[in-house]
Amino acid sequence: MPAPLKTIVAALACALAACALPAAAPAAPTAETLASQLDAKDREIRDAVDDWLAAAGGPPAGQAPAEVMEPALLLQRKVRFLAKRPNLSRRVIAASRPKLAAQLRTMTEAARMLRRLAGPGAGERRRKLKVGKPRSLAELVGHYRKAERLHGIGWNYLAAINLVETKFGRVKSKSTAGAQGPMQFIPSTWRMYGNGGDIQDPHDATLAAARLLRDHGAPRDYGRALYHYNPSQLYVGAVRRYAKLIARDDAAVAFLYCWGP
Question: How many whole angstroms separate alpha carbon 19 and alpha carbon 85?
Answer without folding.
Answer: 34
